[in-house]
Specification:
By secondary structure, this protein is an alpha+beta fold. It has five helices and 15 strands. Strands 2, 3, 4, 5, 6, 7, 10, 11, 12, 13, 14 and 15 form a twelve-stranded mixed sheet that branches. A three-stranded mixed sheet has the order 1-8-9, with no helix packed on it.
């Protein structure tokens, strides 16, 4: 390659990065390692996801259960889109979450992160003591004191994400996911959308939503703004291996490659404090991950300190 051709190639790559090249997790000029070139916040000190290290989690008895309204079955149409990075379900603002300090967050959308690139790779973003779950669910909200998500996403207290981790349960189909999974074939290609008619988000989340980890972080995808209050539920969702494999292999990205391993690597904690509204004993808190390797499975055990249960409203 001549020096001139080399120079032109570098200029083209630079121009792509400068003018919004499609970000990716592992390929191209704007892979995860290079996100900060286009999105400076991605190189910040309060990034997500993180590794939840049980021994370092601080128990906070003042954290009550989240008050969830509108999470139960709602009639209507809910757009579901393959955005080239994940599957995303648009949610109505009638769904909202109120935290212990009285802050109300309105729901915006729900999406998923998964693995699948090999039989042993799981795809949650947050890990627990270094162990990764197979899938992670994010329900994204914005602070109700702002007029819109677009306004809130620019504010330091603008966003909140309710996150749930998924593990494998042998041979048991989770019927609450049947409708969602059956529509994946309708959005195989990036940019395609379909509609879910009627939706019960609470049934798609863990059975026990009272106990959670809480910390301040960022969006896990560009622009990685550091204005997200995270609530990671301690309980897990159970899906069958067949259901998980369907999610891992149904959608294509903008390059018509199967969307797999759409998760960001864990980020440094940088002196932040992770709190929880339950007491977890370290010797019982190991083994949260149900790995695909059957021999590696350890049933999780968690001791929760009873607290004010708050309320879960339809």
């Amino acid at each position: 390659m001549t020096p001139l051709v080399t120079l032109l190639s570098l200029l083209v790559l630079g121009a792509q990065a400068q003018h919004g090249a499609e970000w990716t997790y592992s390929e191209g000029a704007l892979d995860e390692e290079h996100w900060p070139l286009e999105y400076p916040d991605c190189g910040g000190t309060r990034q997500s996801p993180i590794d939840l290290q049980i021994k370092k989690v601080r128990y906070n008895p003042s954290l009550r259960a989240l008050n969830l309204t509108g999470y139960r079955f709602q009639r209507g149409e809910f757009p579901m889109t393959n955005n080239g990075h994940t599957v995303q379900i648009s949610l109505p603002s009638t769904m909202h979450m109120t935290t212990s300090d009285g802050t109300q967050y309105l729901a915006r959308q729900m999406h998923f992160h998964w693995g699948g690139a090999s039989s042993e790779i799981s795809g949650s973003e947050h890990t627990v003591d270094g162990m990764r779950y197979v899938i992670e669910i994010h329900v994204v909200h914005y602070n109700s004191k702002y007029n819109s998500y677009e306004e809130a996403q620019k504010e330091p207290d603008g966003l909140a994400v309710l996150a749930a981790l998924v593990e494998v349960k042998d041979y048991a189909e989770n019927t609450y996911y049947s409708n969602f999974i059956s529509h994946l074939e309708d959005i195989r290609y990036a940019g395609q959308s379909t509609v879910l008619r009627g939706l019960d988000i609470q049934d798609m989340l863990p059975g026990d939503l009272r106990y959670y980890y809480s910390y301040l972080g960022s969006l896990t995808t560009p622009p990685c703004t550091e204005n997200v209050h995270w609530f990671v539920v301690a309980d897990t969702v159970k899906l069958s291996k067949t259901q998980i494999e369907k999610l891992e292999n149904s959608l294509l990205n903008h390059q018509n490659k199967t969307i797999q391993n759409d998760y960001r690597r864990t980020q440094p904690l940088n002196h932040r404090v992770v709190e929880a509204n339950f007491v977890s004993y370290p010797h019982q808190a190991k083994g949260y991950l149900h790995m695909r390797n059957q021999g590696s499975r350890v049933e999780p055990s968690l001791t929760c300190h009873p607290l004010d249960s708050g309320s879960l409203q339809a």
